[in-house]
Sequence to fold (525 residues):
Amino acid sequence: MFKIFFLVFFYSNLALSANFTLDKFKIEINSNFLGEEILLFGQKENLSELVIIFEGELKNARLYSKIKKGFFWTNQTKDLERIPSFFAIFSSPKKSLNELFLIPEITNKHFLVSNYSEELYKVRSALKNKGLYFEEELENVEKDLYLKKFKIPDNIPVGKIAITFYEISNNKVVSTSQKNLLIEKKGLSNKLELLLSEQSIFYAFILIIFSIIFSLISNLIFRKR
Amino acid sequence: MNFYLPIAEISINIYLLISIGIGIGFISGLFGIGGGFISSPLLILVGIPPSVAVGTTTVQVFASTFTGVIGHYQKKNIDYQMGLTMVLGGLFGTLAGVKLLNNLKNIGLIDNYLNSIYIILLLSTAIFILYESAKINFLYKNKKLKLHQHSWIHGLPFKFKYRKSKLYISILAPLFIGFFIGMLTGLTGIGGGFILIPCMIYLLGMKTISVIGTSLFNITLVSFVSLILQIYINQNIDFVLAIFLIISSSIGAAIASRVIDRFDQENLKVLFGLLLVTIALFLLYDLFKIPSSMFEINYV
Fold:
């Protein structure tokens, strides 16, 4: 399957230099969604270094840090702005965050890897715990081709994930391109979310009716004779 | 088999969810409580985001207590006068609790102290119940006891006759208890049945048989108001999660109403006290143990 992708991709991009694509650009969340595997692949030149960053939509967030006070672990909270809902860094060869910090084109664009701050370290750790942060190396296959398989988790927030491709030489970006991966709810999931946000009173009404009906039914079934 | 929950934005095993629901419904029906103080932590434990767990719990509490109310209505075990007096106090209490919650959030105290408040409430209620049961079962085993002991509460003004419970007490007592429980609901999202029941038995002197029905009646009305507020203001109720919990907890509650007569009333109180101690110890352990992750993030 992957080979077919590669062949199509390789021959359609022969004239181009380094580039990337995905096996899909849209993920639909329905009632049996368990997360989805994504295949990232592309072409690169022999000596070029690649960094591909997936960045979800920026949202307000609350960060909880565990702190020990006496015998107890307590939460210290901090409200933060513009935190991406998903973040992944794929590179070839593998680049550490310290190496990325030296590339201004990347640090200026992606706040989460903009500096050495302790706060951003905590945010990255927290996202990693939720499966919403990756730092991995691209796998080289064939001569000039690379790929990476990874899983988008089931707790992925809906919205657009911007994928930015950087080709780097001597810590300077020589070419860049961008594509989007769309995460959206479909079917029942989408209808329920819309109903809750647009007709919340009707949503409440249906829930109450359901509650009463099921209560009555179970009471009838299990009632003592 | 897993199912995606659209508002919680996570997929979860259906059998696990149904087991949780039946268990909560059974406990709820057996002890005449909403079960919110068990279901919220359990749902959070299985990965449901806290705000959705708290919001959806109100629906489950409403459904399971409604089932119980029907059962007790048929058995004529509800003191409507007492229930409505406490609901009146509860409405003002809920508003005060929500206000207090906002103030605590603004000064950044809520996350540290909510669990501690919860543990103290659970343990003190449990100790009180177990002490009262021990008093009846061991200290005064062969002595004839009065229906209830008179305390300072019975000396309060504005007395009112509660015919069903055969009580002539100040209206201020149930109003204040309702207010206190309502404040707790606003503050923590729980129904407060585990405190309401001991208050009704030991402070007001109500008979156990009408306490459970009246408590369920009170919690049903308060959770109904809370449900509307949660959907309208916070939009944190997951329909699919709620439906699974409603069905399973209704079944659990209905099973409990079938088996409740097999239990001795005093043993039921002891069991209830032990349940509270277990949950309090579990929460206490959570404060002591080294966290599995040092940092957490929630989008707001």
DSSP finds six helices and twelve strands in chain A. Residues 200-222 of chain A form the longest helix (23 residues).
